[in-house]
Design a protein that fits this description.
The complex is a heterodimer of chains A (about 200) and B (about 525). By secondary structure, chain A is an all-alpha fold. Chain A has seven helices and no strands. Chain A has a single domain (about 25-200), classed as Four Helix Bundle (Hemerythrin (Met), subunit A) (Up-down Bundle), CATH 1.20.120. Helices cover about 80% and strands about 0% of the residues of chain A. With about 525 residues, chain B is mostly helical. Chain B has helices spanning about 25-30, 35-60, 70-90, 95-105, 115-140, 155, 160-190, 200-235, 245-280, 290-300, 315-345, 355-375, 380-385, 390-420, 425-450, 465-495; strands at about 420, 500. In chain B, helix 2 runs antiparallel to helix 4, helix 9 runs antiparallel to helix 10 (about 290-300) and helix 15 packs antiparallel against helix 16. Chain B is globular. The chains are: A mainly alpha (about 200), B mainly alpha (about 525). The interface of A and B includes residues 4, 35 and 144 of A.
């Protein structure tokens, strides 16, 4: 009983890990759910301002980013399938492609935000304070929602980098890939949230 | 005592187990759920003591009208800090982090929780959040003075350390989510063979319902606090009407979490009481399924009643009566539990040991707290007593009389198992009597004061309220001394008490079938469950 290895020895339960990840995804959805609630209330209150605000965003960049994220969701799913079929090299390539897509997304976001900043439009700026109330709320929500989403992208990237190294060191292999699966689940979540953000912020009419 | 044979087996208890680390590190880096539970116990016990002292300072200030021992702004800081510490650092984590951690795996026949490392991580996050909360009191802009509710727009404007305090609440919420997640997976995945959901003891059932609330409600307060922080940092106008925002929206978002959080506090308390009553009556619990499912019902309906905190804030009449109706509905499953506890005692062989005394007084205080809750839930009376001392009395009867007394019941019930030592019954009974008398003296006068119009959170009052305030303050002093005496008795029990047998109360659930204190892995061999946990008669 006093064996020191009791707790370091692994009790593996992949179902438990996956269930845990799903529950965590619920909490993330509710986190953004609170924001969607606030968004819908203010949009109902200031429909006109919200429409005008959305005209100042570039639908093209938003659409490109949507496609980029959808594509990355596909590549991470391919990485998982490759791992299940014991193709380590392909799995690693697909994870790297996913990470590259994430970087492309963030670069796009950087230029998008940068242009707004350049025009003096950022939270706390003098220009923001002069805007109409509905406008101010729209751009506040825009920066808050996309900022929180970008933060989740970064968290997802860190997770995938960890996964990448574990695949490389054979800590993740064809018979033990639950971490890769959970990383992929999280990545799909990040993608899914963007699928909602894009029409809510860019396509208002 | 019975079942002493178990004690003769040679084993190493979790208290003496030697792992990778030594000394203090073998505790603060432990992944054993029992050690983590004790870590929570020590932390939460300390925070409770600090919160209680702050409460006592408030009572001393209110012993006479006008300024007695502190300035008004200090008073505002103290009631805010008292609230933040007690709500976020004591009662919300309290029972589930301490007793849930220690006994949930044992009660379902598991060796640990599903994610032991995550469990340790939750404790560290909890400590980090607590340090932030305490730091917010001492940083240079002065303690937050918003009340623990952080109502906008004042919280967006006050110059005090609101950002630090809300960040602390956010971090503590994260810890709460991770604990809830861990327990949900544990209950779904780790039950011993043969333990179906309807074979589980009722404390795990309560923890199960609680964990769902922790998981689903806490993110809402998380995002709300983040928005408040962004508002303060960048002048965004989510909740400030000057900038187009809506302060009522903050209240809605706040209570969407904070009302379910009340059930995070009380559901595990009900679970504890449901374990204690059958043991000390030696009776099979009456209405097992009704108690189990009423926990789930409370958790479910509890999500839909938040508006009853806001009757006077400005809501449509339809919304008000709807929230009022739902508030009455959520009282039903709570009442079902009370009826079942009392029915369990019927024809039982009742043994008035200290845990049972606390359990019975829980029922008494919970009935007072619950029925005054209905007074607050109906719109007309609520408008009369809203934001008065009546509300303060009501929620202290629920939170302290309910959750607090259940915590005391739990520690008296399970301490022999946790430490393998027994405390002194006579001293425990005296401490119980002092606490019970002190509690009622402290809070009951506040019902009357509130009805007469004494507002809550006020530094000063009219001379006509003084009699009630003095009685209340005397009660507070009695209560704190009773609490100190109780802790003294328990500490003496742990240090110098008689060794406790494996099953001192002749309980039937799994924790009493293993030695006291439990071995590191809980069970030598995985138990196989064939019957209902409360198999007395």
């Amino acid at each position: 009983m006093s064996d020191t290895n009791i707790h370091t020895e692994e009790h593996r339960n992949d179902d438990a890990s996956k269930l845990g990840m799903w529950l965590f995804i619920f909490t993330e959805l509710l986190l953004f759910g609170g924001l969607f609630l606030v968004y819908s209330i203010y949009r109902a209150q200031y429909p006109h301002n919200f429409h005008e605000g959305s005209l100042e965003l570039s639908v093209t960049i938003g659409a490109i980013n949507t496609i980029v994220l959808l594509f990355s969701s596909m590549t991470i799913a391919m990485a998982l399938t490759a791992m299940q079929r014991n193709n380590k090299k392909l799995a690693m390539t697909m994870i790297v492609v996913t990470l590259l897509m994430a970087v492309v997304f963030l670069i796009n976001k950087y230029f998008e935000w940068g242009a707004k900043f350049h025009h003096g439009l950022y939270p706390g700026s003098d220009l923001m304070a002069l805007l109409e109330r509905g406008h101010l709320l729209y751009f506040s929500l825009y920066f808050f929602m996309t900022g929180l989403h970008a933060f989740h992208i970064i968290v997802g990237m860190v997770l995938l980098i960890v996964v990448l190294f574990k695949v490389k060191n054979n800590r993740i292999h064809a018979h033990k890939y639950v971490l890769l699966e959970n990383g992929a689940l999280y990545w799909h979540l990040v993608d899914l949230i963007w699928i909602f953000l894009f029409p809510l912020l860019y396509l208002i009419s | 005592m019975m079942h002493n044979t178990v004690d003769k087996i040679e084993y190493v208890s979790f208290l003496e187990h030697k792992g990778r680390f030594k000394g203090l590190f073998s505790w603060i880096f432990a992944t054993d759920h029992k050690r983590i539970a004790l870590l929570y116990l020590y932390a939460i016990g300390t925070f409770f003591f600090v919160g209680a002292i702050l409460g006592l300072l408030m009572r001393l200030e209110l012993i006479a009208p006008g300024e007695t021992i502190m300035k008004p702004q200090t008073y505002n800081g103290i009631f805010t800090v008292h609230g933040i510490i007690m709500i976020f650092m004591v009662v919300i984590p309290g029972l589930s982090a301490v007793f849930g951690n220690f006994f949930l795996p044992i009660l379902i026949g598991a060796k640990d929780v599903a994610f032991p490392k995550l469990n340790l991580f939750s404790w560290w996050v909890f400590i980090f959040g607590s340090v932030l909360a305490i730091a917010s009191q001492f940083m240079k802009n002065g303690p937050p003075d918003t009340g623990w509710t952080f109502y906008a727009p004042y919280s967006t404007a006050t110059g005090t350390n609101v950002i630090t305090a809300t960040t602390a609440a956010f971090v503590l919420g994260f810890s709460s989510i991770l604990t809830g997640l861990n327990f949900l997976v544990t209950i779904h995945q780790m039950r011993a063979p043969g333990m179906k959901f309807f074979n589980m003891p009722l404390f795990p059932w309560a923890i199960y319902a609680t964990a769902w609330i922790q998981l689903l409600a806490t993110p809402i307060i998380g995002i709300t606090l983040l928005m408040l922080i962004a508002e303060r940092l960048f002048g965004i106008g989510f909740f400030n009407p000057d900038l187009g925002g809506d302060p009522i929206l903050f209240q809605h978002l706040f209570w969407i979490y904070s009302h379910p959080a009340v059930y995070v506090m009380i559901l595990p308390a009900m679970g504890v009481i449901t374990e204690i009553i059958p043991t000390f009556c030696q009776r099979r619990v009456y209405g097992y399924k009704a108690i189990a499912l009423s926990s789930v019902a409370i958790a479910g309906v509890g999500f839909l009643v938040w508006g009853h905190h806001m009757y006077t804030s400005g809501m449509s009449n339809q919304a008000r009566w709807f929230f009022s109706l739902l508030t009455f509905v959520v009282a039903v499953p709570s009442a079902i539990k009370v009826f079942n506890w009392i029915s369990t005692m019927y024809k039982g062989s009742i043994d008035l040991k200290p845990p049972f005394l606390y359990a019975v007084s829980f029922i008494f205080l919970f009935i007072i707290g619950g029925t005054t809750g209905l007074l607050l839930g109906s719109i007309a009376t609520n408008v009369q007593v809203h934001d008065t001392a009546f509300v303060v009395a009501h929620f202290h009867y629920i939170i302290f009389g309910g959750m607090g007394f259940a915590f005391f019941a739990a520690i008296h019930y399970w301490l022999p198992k946790m430490y393998g030592k027994m405390y002194n019954f006579k001293r425990a009974n005296i401490a119980w009597a002092i606490i019970f008398v002190g509690f009622n003296l402290l809070y009951f006068p506040q019902f009357i004061l509130g009805f007469q119009g004494m507002p809550r959170r006020y530094f000063d009052y009219l001379p006509q309220f003084q009699t009630g305030e003095v009685i209340s303050t005397i009660g507070g002093i009695i209560l704190v001394s009773g609490f100190i005496f109780m802790v003294y008795n328990l500490v003496m029990g742990v240090r110098k008490g008689e060794p406790a047998p494996a099953n001192p109360w002749n309980g039937s659930t799994l924790e009493w079938q293993i030695p006291s204190p439990p071995p590191t892995e809980n069970f030598d061999e995985v138990p196989v469950i064939k019957k209902n946990p409360y198999d007395y008669i």
